[in-house]
From TrEMBL, chain B:
It catalyses: ATP + protein L-histidine = ADP + protein N-phospho-L-histidine. Residues 13-86 form the PAS domain. The lineage of its organism: Bacteria, Pseudomonadati, Pseudomonadota, Alphaproteobacteria, Hyphomicrobiales. Residues 88-140 form the PAC domain. It is an enzyme of class 2 (transferase). This is Blue-light-activated histidine kinase. Keywords: ATP-binding, Flavoprotein, FMN, Kinase, Nucleotide-binding, Phosphoprotein, Plasmid, Repeat, Transferase, Virulence. It comes from the Bacteria. InterPro entries: HATPase_C_sf, PAS, PAS-assoc_C, PAS-like_dom_sf, PAS_fold, Sig_transdc_His_kinase_HWE. Its EC number is 2.7.13.3.
């Protein structure tokens, strides 16, 4: 089973996305900051990453996406934001961007279409 | 206005014009010769730019351009534009004598003699820093509002998805949905009444109780010092108290005739950090038989996850009743939003 790490500080959105991913058959870990996310990837293998761009703490979701790509280039990455539309140069190669509000089923379809890591 | 190099008698008309130029103190009016050396410098120029006339006459009128603009040849470009088109616009940051900058809005025009021969330039500018900063604040504010709107819609979308997902029936879904959205809306209302700066714990508890028709109930006691919550914490707490009250009404201390909910909070120093301690304790409700009852629904997860975003939180299903304890560093729950940062931000 592929494992998704969900990084989103808005708890309502995070829990709803976690539930939707569970229902779709993914294993899910979740947290609210990039720093906590890095602690998780130090300990666990993840195959897919969903991250919001604006997060509390020093690192943004874009920083996190770049860090994850540098360490695990096979991890499928989705970045989302209601504020910033990142330039493609800011996103790691093959990462997908979703503007908020997004449909939960679109996130799932996008993850399903990503090559198994 | 005595223009250096000008000779001859001064007419009453010239005295009249001079009086106008010197009294227009909201405008810097500067004349220059063809080499760009200052030939006159009015009171407005003294007030806006800071240099005195005697310090500027005969000096290049480039001193109040920023170094970057000087290196880019902006003063020369302005003069060329004035020579070619009669006017050159000057809308940029300029330097004052004390080294501070201001946003200037003005124009440079050519100055002609009686035979229509160009003999120099005249520059008129105003300090438009405040207007520019106001426009910039408005732009940031609109951007922030657009973001907040999208964020709110995302949250509402999550509420809708969750309420439908866990509903026993369409009627149940409708109830959950309406109450959750109303709780979220009430929290916004409290924040708006306080200019989106803060809400107190007591405000948030009262609004959540009112939302589900439990305001003033003798079965709920709320007690604690006056603690202010930042916007993010206020919205989170509003949803947390809504779910807690809903759960208590459905399964907990408010689901029978005798139960009681005691909400208390206090400030404590914990490891050198000022910390908000929150306790929600249910008593005299139906006895809880299992230590992990079937209350791990979305509401319970929302409660714990929301509070853990600010600090530590744990729930216990004691036989006597449900208990929630949270220890939240004050700095985290009083964090201000981007919007208030815009209000107090110094100029760009």
């Amino acid at each position: 089973m592929r494992k998704v790490l969900v990084v989103e500080d808005e708890v309502l959105i995070r829990l709803t996305l976690v539930d939707a991913l569970h229902d779709a058959g993914f294993e899910v870990a979740d947290t609210g900051s990039a720093e906590a996310a890095i602690e998780i990837i130090d300990r666990q293998t993840i195959h897919l990453l969903f991250t919001d761009i604006q997060l509390p703490g020093k690192l943004t979701g874009l920083d996190l996406a770049q860090t994850v790509f540098a360490r695990f280039p096979d991890v499928g990455i989705i970045v989302a934001s209601g504020r910033i539309q990142p330039a493609s140069a800011e996103l790691p190669p093959r990462a997908k961007f979703f503007a908020k509000p997004f449909r939960f089923d679109q996130i799932i379809a996008c993850f399903k279409a990503m090559n198994p890591a | 206005m005595k223009i250096a190099g000008d000779t001859g008698t001064i007419s009453s008309r010239e005295r009249f014009l001079e009086a106008i130029v010197q009294s227009a103190i909201d405008y810097a009016i500067i004349s220059m010769d063809l080499d760009g050396l200052v030939t006159s410098w009015n009171e407005g120029a003294v007030k806006i730019l800071g240099w005195k006339a005697e310090d500027m006459i005969g000096k290049p009128a480039t001193v109040f351009f920023t170094q970057e603009d000087r290196e880019d040849g902006v003063p020369q470009k302005e003069m060329t534009a004035a020579l070619n088109n009669g006017r050159g616009s000057d809308e940029r940051w300029h330097l004052r004598a004390d080294g501070t900058i201001f946003w200037a809005s003005g124009e440079m025009m050519t100055l002609r003699d009686a035979n229509d021969k160009t003999i120099g330039f005249i520059k008129i500018l105003r300090d438009r820093t405040e207007e520019r900063e106001r426009a910039e604040r408005e732009r940031l504010l609109m951007h922030e509002l657009a973001h907040r709107m999208k964020n709110t819609l995302s949250v509402v979308q999550a509420i809708v998805t969750q309420s439908l997902r866990n509903a026993a029936s369409l009627g149940d879904a409708s109830d959950k949905l309406q109450l959750r959205i109303a709780a979220y809306a009430k929290a916004h209302e409290i924040l708006l009444q306080r200019d989106w700066v803060s809400a107190t714990m007591a405000d948030v508890v009262t609004a959540a109780s009112m939302n589900i028709g439990l305001d003033g109930s003798s079965r709920i006691s709320a007690d604690g010092p006056d603690v202010r919550l930042g916007p993010q914490a206020a919205l989170s707490f509003a949803m947390v108290f809504h779910e807690l009250l809903t759960n208590a009404s459905k399964y907990g201390a408010l689901s029978n005739e005798e139960g009681h909910v005691e909400i208390s909070w206090d400030l404590e120093h914990r490891d050198g950090t000022e910390t908000l301690m929150v306790c929600w304790r249910e008593t005299n409700g139906p006895r809880i038989v299992s230590s992990q009852p079937d209350r791990k629904g979305f509401g319970s997860r929302l409660i714990v996850s929301s509070l853990q975003a600010f600090g530590e939180a744990s729930v216990s299903y004691l036989q006597e009743g449900f208990v929630l304890l949270a220890a939240l560093p004050l700095a985290k729950i009083q964090l201000q939003s981007d919007l208030s940062a815009i209000e107090t931000a110094p100029k760009a």
